[in-house]
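At this stage, I needed to go through a protein sequence along with its fold in token form, as given directly below:
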Amino acid sequence: MEPTPELSPHHAYPDHWEADVVLRDGGTARIRPITTEDAERLVSFYEQVSDESKYYRFFAPYPRLSDRDVHRFTHHDYVDRVGLAVTIGGEFIGTVRFDRINDQGRPASAPADEAEVAFLVQDAHQGRGVASALLEHIAAVARERGIRRFAAEVLPANNKMIKVFRDAGYTQQRSFEDGSVHLTLDLEPTEKSLAVQRGREQRAEARSVQRLLAPGSVAVIGTGRTPGGVGRTVLRNLLAAGFTGRTYAVNRAFDEGLATLDGVPAHRSLGEIDERVDLAVIAVPAHRVPEAVADCGEHGVQGLVVLSAGYAERGSAGRELQRELVRQARSYGMRIIGPNAFGIINTAESVRLNASLAPESPARGRIGLFTQSGAIGIALLSGLHRRGAGLSSFISAGNRADVSGNDFLQYSFEDQDTDVALLYLESLGNPRKFTRLARRTAAVKPVVVVKGARHSGTNPPGHAVPVSRIPDATVSALMRQAGVIRVDTVTEMVDAGLLLAGQPLPAGPRVAILGNSESLGLLTYDACLAEGLRPRPPRDLTTAASPQDFRDALAEALADGTCDAVIVTAIPWVGENGEAETGDGEVLAAALRGAAAGGPAKPVAVVHVEIGGLAEALAAASSTAAPRTRPTTLAGRPAAAPGAPTGAAPATATAPTGPGTEAPPETAGAAGTTEPAGTTEPTEPAGTAEPEAAGPPARPGRIPAYPAAERAVRAMAEAVKYAQWRRQAATPGKVPEFLDETTDEPGAAALIDTLLGPAPDPRGRPLTHDEARELLGRYGIPVRPTLPAPDPEAAVAAAARLGYPVALKTTAPHLRHRADLGGVRLDLTDEDALRRAYAEVTELLGKPAELLPVVQSMAPRGVDTVVRASIDAAAGAVLSFGLAGAPSELLGDTAHRLVPATDRDAAELIRSIKAAPVLFGWRGSAPVDTPALEELLLRLSRLVDDHPEVVSVALEPVVVAPQGLTVLGATVRLAPPPPRGDLGPRRLPNY
């Protein structure tokens, strides 16, 4: 709601301060500026606040607000006086305001940079994290208005208020004056305040998904009166799954005399139900959805699954309907899965929820599955079912207008019933957040992702999210950096998921191969080499091998310290009559399971050809296993599993793995005040530890079986790479500070301000060669100078100034870095050679005015490379590296890492390209100075991270010699920095 603006344009209603937030209990609320139209809401809100809360707010009994108070608290200039409110259903449940003050504590205007702050939260909503969310947002508003500190006066008995300030993570000071506690809060974000904010976000968003997946009661709105139809199908599936809560059928068209439908209570509206409904599944036409949502909101429903179609997948008009649907649901504190969703499933024994269109609920298992496509969801459920795999949870989000893959990651991180998270994504609404959450989750359990719509450059119909312009190869590299297992197809996702959910992580790439088919063993061996594994020569047990022979060979391979994983290949036995005997699958499965259970903890996979019952028998081992618990040492820590990879999660024969990493000091708290301080809700203790997470089992469980060697090997290779990432993530790299005379961060900032000017062009501007050299030099990145050569005489003068030998280069855009076209002449040792080269270039390619030739002194011989950094508005800053010319431009052999890069990132970056051997002495050449190259990468990363105005940098070529390197060319572009939503206060995205 936008009021009439004040006379001054600086006082216009700041609609960018509006935000939807998830509260501690998983419900949503809206934060917005208080306006002059809120007088009645404010009075009503204050009447519902207890006397004790009023006393804490005003330091005295204050039963009601005077007209003057109401006017003061609803009239703000949005600069020196600001008020924010938290609303649900349009009504206030909490408020905060600040007033700018001077050094004497009196009202002031800028440049005064301190403000008094006061909070008040309705008693019925205390404990939900309302005030802590308000503190984040009012602090961001204050920083935007040039306020650097908050001051508060708090009664000594108001311990909760004091704790709120202490737990927020900001730098604070306290003193006792005149019977009250004086608090000063420095609003500059700190690592601790950011960790607290993200910890609260994680718990709140995980709780919001948990409320959807584990409701105590479900109402299906739109249940048909006759069999068939979407609503009736969902009701039938709920009942068939044995949902442990209460179920209701709702349809306004029901006859008044209808009491039950399919054995559950039938009602015409939610108002007829005697209890509050937790989850509503909406299956009505799109034009009736707003009415159903309003009915849900007015009767306290906590979450919605909207199966109805007709939204953003239908075009711009449907997209606006979708946005309105989200606004309406959030205004009542509800989250949405959908619209156009397939539904949700939770197989936990205490829930048994199948609120989806899947006719059969999957078996209980340890895999969590999220998909943005109903069709893909159906295919995945079917594929997992055929292979005997169970699920812990399933969400098919449809248009995913609200609950997204990021929310699912938050939930999966905490869910003790999930060992592996599988996600099929067609769009990334917030890539920065996804990368952060994926890295955190992957540290304790595998995250496997298939990304659809990779090459279209647009989002699928219905997905109204920002489109990232970075290539898919870059997206894949960034996912790998975050520990995500990125695969290309849903089949590969299932293959990897089955292995990771049923087998321990491998300690390395060494693979033993054994089986009763020499040919199948050789195929497996070749596939291992193609995937970068280190296979041992296959062991042929011959076609006469019995199940006992398989068991003995597998036990021997597992006991061998020189192998980290085993792949078993099997073909049917041939009977005396020459026919294949395919019925011994169960016997072989029992033999393999026995060997795996008795040997060291190493992953085992089976490749089989038409052995009846084998895959099913292997899958039956633990597809419905109950959650496992982990024994602890005498110190109370989880015990490590024998043979577990270094840095991998400690685990045991009956427990999921998980590194058990501690959480940052994250707390949730209530609000504080100053003007006498107000009321708060209870807070959580600071530094609350993360819940113990699940992960791949430490001992073999279900042994996955594959119909082709390539599929088994590819899944094993993904497990090997993920295990290696886990080991490295246990001791993360460091971001160097470069605190020496070579780095001048303030000088670079001043130079950037000067180059952009007081009114920078939003499109930005490229820097000249000299400007780029000066800026890069502030971070210890010297660029070899070039001098213009508009004619032969200028070229000779430039060479005399620089010193021979020199290079003559054309800098016209179509000829830049194109030595193959004759635009670059090297090793010109004297004036005659330079004049000849100048004449040849201009005769061959055109006039000097078109070629823009320059002269540059020669650099030591080495390997030509390219280093780039760029900022994508959606994904963030990306650092890239490759060899110059064909390897990177034609073959796409380029590696990428997110900024800021660590020392480990830099080392991996130059080693991860396919042409990396050229840098390390390939075919007898001298190895180049890779430490110098790593330092260059880190310095460029630091520059881009420190100064987001540097939106792109290209260093090309960078000649890396055996000793040192030389940057021969540099292009830099500056622009006003793009917004960093991941650093602001918590808020739900609005698509």
